[in-house]
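Help wanted!
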Amino acid sequence: MNIVESLRALVDETAVLDATTLATRSAGAHRADTLTAQAMVRPSTTEEVSTVLAWCHAQGIGVVTQGGLTGLVHGADASTAEVILSLESMRRIEDIDVRQRTATVQAGVVLQALQEAVDAHDLIFPLDLGARGSATLGGNAATNAGGNRVIRYGMMRDMVLGLEAVLADGTVVSSMNRLIKNNTGYDLKQLFIGSEGTLGVITRLVLRLREKPQSHQAALVAVESFDAVANLLKHMDRSLGGALSAFEVMWQSFYQLVSTPPAKGQPPIDAGFPYYVLVESLGADREADSQRFNAALETALEHGLIADAAIAHSDADVQAFWALRDDVMQVTVGGAPVVFDVSLPIVEMEAFVARLRAALPQEIGEHRLWVFGHLGDGNLHVIVQVPAPDYLALRPRIEALVYEGLRAFSGSVSAEHGIGLEKKPWLPISRNPNEIALMRTLKQALDPKHILNQGKIF
Amino acid sequence: MNIVESLRALVDETAVLDATTLATRSAGAHRADTLTAQAMVRPSTTEEVSTVLAWCHAQGIGVVTQGGLTGLVHGADASTAEVILSLESMRRIEDIDVRQRTATVQAGVVLQALQEAVDAHDLIFPLDLGARGSATLGGNAATNAGGNRVIRYGMMRDMVLGLEAVLADGTVVSSMNRLIKNNTGYDLKQLFIGSEGTLGVITRLVLRLREKPQSHQAALVAVESFDAVANLLKHMDRSLGGALSAFEVMWQSFYQLVSTPPAKGQPPIDAGFPYYVLVESLGADREADSQRFNAALETALEHGLIADAAIAHSDADVQAFWALRDDVMQVTVGGAPVVFDVSLPIVEMEAFVARLRAALPQEIGEHRLWVFGHLGDGNLHVIVQVPAPDYLALRPRIEALVYEGLRAFSGSVSAEHGIGLEKKPWLPISRNPNEIALMRTLKQALDPKHILNQGKIF
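Answered by r_m:
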């Protein structure tokens, strides 16, 4: 049986690529390898997705769904025995309802395309992350993407009102709810959000939009202790009354990294403090919100929560602050980084980092350690850089140190990136055997032939 | 086999009540009947819940879980063949973490008890509803409760970080996540939230707390058209920059009902307008927030979005406005009410109500129609009152009119109350056959012997 020919008989001929063509396509952002698979099929409708899945299911062929290929955990890797189902031909924004504040999209729509489309209506789709220019909304949903504004607007899960998914056997489950409140039986969309393509293929989404904020405040502040960082979060959250949109903490070494050459960033405040926080709020009124924001910072200064502060006076300032926080590529200078995306209770963070800092020298020798993250939602990015020649040998030991270190603090081995293949060995640190058994029960119920994204997660 | 004796051998003897004792207990709020069942067992730990379920599972005995018995859809009714599992002995607030802003509770804790416990720490648990004094947090989770502040804080689903549930066979799935971001495999808690006790028994919860708002603004406004109501929602939401907490609309006849004797409420503004809206915001600073709130109302007045407004100048005013909105018992004066809890897109509401208003006289004759609801989240309460003697005969016809009327607008037959037994016949109006089939697949996978809350939902 020739899979490429068979698929071409099911959908438009040009919608199917063979293995040779795939070998010319990149396997994803930040990756050096190219795609492998028996074939790629690019349906343009839900019906075509259904037809393809029904056929693959009958044949027992594994299917890997791909969106924008911006994932970081090898969650969309395919083997040479599998078929890739790419959503790249399903990029239609079907509807933007300004009054109901919903958008209806095909799953292949790129995040930024939706952001731009709704901006014209004075609305926002609040999910935002670095890969906005290539990540798809279907991929955002399948991985429950997080990003920069989770403390204000939640994760992708909180922005999906309805969805349509195709099950492994081709059954279309259309649950395109547009309502904020709908308690009519099980909330089926939750099954597909965050399950990394293992339970079904998301084909369409109804997304919740929000009114566009009319003002934007930001400050970069220096903090003397982690206790003060935690109290500052509570203080700012309370003082801003619902407008706090980001609370990004940088440990000293990360701040120094991104504000010292070869990094292009300039330090807005002295680089000698132990912690820095980028605080941001999104509001309704530029003047009144600035007053409130500055007053909250002044109170924090009076109470000793912050030691120094640089307040953004222009959009350029805001961008400059974010550019520091986002200049993560500096961690690749002078060595090879092992990058982590963990979460743990705020009260435990300092102890977790201290233990890691103490253990690293004896366990792995020469290294650099950087920590930063979305503290407002418990999410830390930990980066350990080692000399490039030692990377492959040291990586497993570093992973063991970081992940085993989380165990004592009930931490999560993946705050937002997901499990994919990369973190699969570490899943049992965050989930117990009965939880994993229940995940397997769900997988068995929805995909009994295990054709969808084989071997991912567990 | 004597079930009562068998259960008494499994748990503390006093934790098991027999059928005779149950017949002296009310079946729930607003109900005239008493409890029926073979027995009621009241475990005090998760382990006891597990032991009881494992035994019932082995015997093939149906189990109905009960919380505070405040449900409105007969979702916790038991038959004489079933065992009631009551969470009333699991009322321990295990932990309040002020910095992480989480509460860990047993499922039988009453909503108001948690509200009061966290208030002492200057935090809130933002779920709020009329039955707060008896509804349990486990019941709130099992039914995905909504309430008065959904536009600001979401439904119960959005407030649960982790949970522990016992499956039908007694397996304990403890997924007590305390983290806002945790993408480690399937989000299992979603299965149990809103599934009305049909997939497992929720025994413990980790709940997300919020900083306590420092100020409170409210106004009752009159609006000339439904178009203006919808635009007012957008205007207030945008102008208040995240602080809008309620947007409760009353159609004229409901406003007149609750502000005219025998109702005790006084009308703060003239009762001749077609629509009234109770707008509320929760903020951080009394003076600044009041200024902003009043300015937003002034702009609305200038733009013709509102025709008149009464602004609350004290907490007593706020309470008086809410007392009008909450005086739903007036609908029982002079007749018998059929009460609905539906949701539909805001753009469709006016047409839906107009069609219903036109159809009622010819279909059912003498009646009164009242409409009000949480417009901010699409949720309408529709109440049709008929002469008491005609109630039983007319009720099915009224249900058919309201629910069939929703079909054309992709509405939901249950915005927040759930399906239970009462709305089971109408589920297919809001959910398609493939959705219901997938619900059955999940039920079969998690409870293959169908012992949990038999016959509810579908």
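OP: Thanks! One thing I noticed: Chain A touches chain B through 98 residues (CB under 8 Å).
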